[in-house]
């Protein structure tokens, strides 16, 4: 009999029903598990996720990662762009107003998306992190110049950001179907 178990937003198709007994099921060495992604259609439908379809993105036109992460990951029809801080492609933090720093974050996002074969108009979700909500209005004035298509967004104040910067922006872009050259 076949069962399903949930782990970190993924469903794992298994060959046993005992996987449903644990409130937090984990893949077992003894059970053949296949990751499955689900999309909403009436109840839901599932399709297999091939991890070979997950690709790392790197460009020299944006700041290199400051730690053990990628500038972006392409997974299926989405690009997950890591948080971009106001630093140029050499990694030097820029000076200026919060508007200038927000613009640099957005320019970094544009460069990473270009390397992934997309552009900023494909962004569907943005997360903005500010070290002080007093900077919101100025950040927002610059932000809307880059994201005129108004993707979904969250903006939160945090105690501290990497390298002491006042703003960091991350996003998710939808790339959909691509041609043989990887371009939209």
UniProtKB/TrEMBL annotation:
Pfam families: Ribonuc_L-PSP (PF01042). CDD domains: YjgF_YER057c_UK114_family. Transmembrane segments: none annotated. This is YjgF-like protein. It comes from the Eukaryota. One of its GO terms (cellular component) is mitochondrion. GO terms for molecular function: deaminase activity. Belongs to the RutC family. InterPro entries: RidA, RidA_CS, RutC-like_sf, YjgF/YER057c/UK114.
């Amino acid at each position: 009999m076949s069962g399903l178990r949930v782990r970190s937003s993924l469903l794992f198709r298994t060959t046993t029903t005992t996987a449903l007994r644990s409130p937090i099921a984990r893949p077992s060495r003894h059970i053949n598990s296949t990751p499955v992604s689900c999309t909403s259609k009436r109840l839901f439908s599932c399709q297999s996720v091939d991890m070979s379809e997950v690709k790392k993105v790197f460009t020299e036109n944006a700041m290199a990662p400051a730690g053990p992460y990628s500038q972006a990951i392409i997974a299926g029809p989405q690009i997950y762009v890591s948080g971009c801080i106001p630093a140029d492609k050499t990694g030097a933090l820029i000076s200026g107003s919060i508007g200038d720093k927000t613009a640099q974050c957005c320019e970094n996002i544009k460069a990473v998306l270009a390397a992934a074969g997309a552009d900023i108009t494909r962004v569907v979700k943005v997360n903005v992190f500010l070290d002080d909500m007093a900077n919101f209005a100025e950040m927002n004035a610059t932000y809307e110049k880059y994201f005129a298509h108004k993707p979904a967004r969250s903006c939160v104040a945090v105690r501290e950001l990497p390298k002491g910067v006042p703003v960091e922006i991350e996003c998710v872009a939808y790339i959909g179907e691509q041609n043989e050259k990887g371009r939209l």
